Every structure is written in structure tokens, then in C-alpha cells.
């Protein structure tokens, strides 16, 4: 191969050069041509800018996926495939990794605070809170319903007893 390449040849190789997929000698020849040819240099700059834009958009989409699934990941609610995606994003993206570390620190702080508070209290209200969340606060309404039903039944019995006693006197 000659040490001189045409602009058409450079055009065909420019993407491979940008990605570092050329051997050392060919990459050196392409680099020299790009540095000496203003037209190819401009093409290379556009390819680089476009590639960076595409990578930025891909990174933003990955980070958006990460943010949307972070809570489910922390709570082990994702399937294995989705969990692996989140792990890969956290490994490759420093901002995502920092978010994950912050969330784990916050979770630990919340757990420690809960345990301190729970141990410092005389009574444990956690079961009542769990029931309230589980039944949506309806256990109080259910208890009130039974009380009202009992009162209503007692009133009916009193009315019936009074009615029968009145019939007995007649």
C-alpha cells in the first residue's frame, strides 16, 4: 500500500480511524492525511462531533433508565436481566454510581434511625403501623362498624322487648 491515500479512501476509513479500529501503520497514514487535508479534517471533526452527540444521547437514555429503576433495584423488585442492566450502568456511569451509593447510605441511615427509635421506645408500634398500611387504615372503620351494629342490635332488642311487654299487658 502507498503512503498516500486519496480523500475517497480516507472517507471510507475515517469511521474506523475514529473508533481506533485501524492497525498502527494505516492509522498513522490516515492521521497524516487528515492533518494535511482541510476537507478530510472537517469531515473527521464532524464525525467526531456526531459520534460524541450519539454517545451522549445513549448515555442520557441509559441514565434515565437507571433513575427510573433505581428504587425497584434497591428493593430487589427487578428481574435478573433488569438488575444486571442497572449494575452495568452504575459501573460505567460515575453519576449513576454516586446516586446508587447515596441511596444505599440513605437507606442505611433510615434503618439505623428506625432501630434506635424502636429500641428506645417502651412499646413497639410497628405491628400497628404495618396493619394500618396493610389494611389502608380500614381496621378502625371495621371496629366502628361492629360497634354500631351491636348498638343497633341492642336497640332493636329493647324495642322488641318493650313491644312484647306491651302486648303482654293487653
Question: How does this model look, in words?
Answer:
Helix content is 85%, strand content 0%. The chain has 170 residues and is an all-alpha fold. The longest helix has 37 residues, at 38-74. It is rod-shaped. The termini are far apart. 8% of the residues are buried. The model has no long low-confidence stretch (mean pLDDT 81).
Describe the structure concisely for a colleague.
The chain is mostly helical and 170 residues long. It is 85% helix and 0% strand.
The total of beta strands comes to 0
Assign a percent range to the helix content: over 70%
Strand content: under 5%
- What would the average pLDDT be, to the nearest integer? 81
- Ends: how far apart? 129 Å
Question: Biggest sheet, in brief?
Answer: none
> What gyration radius follows from the Cα positions, in whole Å?
37 Å
Topology:
Layout: H1 7-18, H2 24-36, H3 38-74, H4 80-92, H5 94-120, H6 126-135, H7 138-169
Helix pairs in contact: 1-2, 1-3, 2-3, 3-4, 3-5, 4-5
Give me some keywords for this one.
170 residues, mainly alpha, 7 helices, rod-shaped
Amino acid at each position: 500500500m502507498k503512503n498516500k491515500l486519496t480523500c475517497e479512501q480516507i472517507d471510507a476509513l475515517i469511521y474506523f480511524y475514529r473508533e481506533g479500529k485501524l492497525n498502527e501503520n494505516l492509522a498513522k497514514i490516515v492521521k497524516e492525511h487528515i492533518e494535511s487535508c482541510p476537507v478530510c479534517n472537517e469531515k473527521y471533526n464532524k464525525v467526531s462531533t456526531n459520534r460524541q452527540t450519539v454517545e451522549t444521547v445513549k448515555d442520557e437514555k441509559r441514565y434515565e433508565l437507571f433513575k427510573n429503576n433505581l428504587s425497584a433495584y434497591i428493593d430487589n423488585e427487578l428481574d435478573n436481566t433488569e438488575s444486571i442492566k442497572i449494575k452495568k450502568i452504575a459501573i460505567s456511569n460515575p453519576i449513576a454510581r454516586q446516586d446508587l451509593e447515596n441511596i444505599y447510605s440513605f437507606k442505611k441511615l433510615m434503618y439505623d434511625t428506625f432501630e434506635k427509635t424502636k429500641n428506645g421506645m417502651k412499646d413497639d408500634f410497628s405491628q400497628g403501623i404495618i396493619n394500618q398500611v396493610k389494611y389502608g387504615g380500614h381496621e378502625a372503620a371495621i371496629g366502628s362498624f361492629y360497634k354500631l351494629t351491636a348498638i343497633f342490635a341492642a336497640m332493636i332488642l329493647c324495642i322488641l322487648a318493650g313491644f312484647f311487654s306491651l302486648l303482654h299487658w293487653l
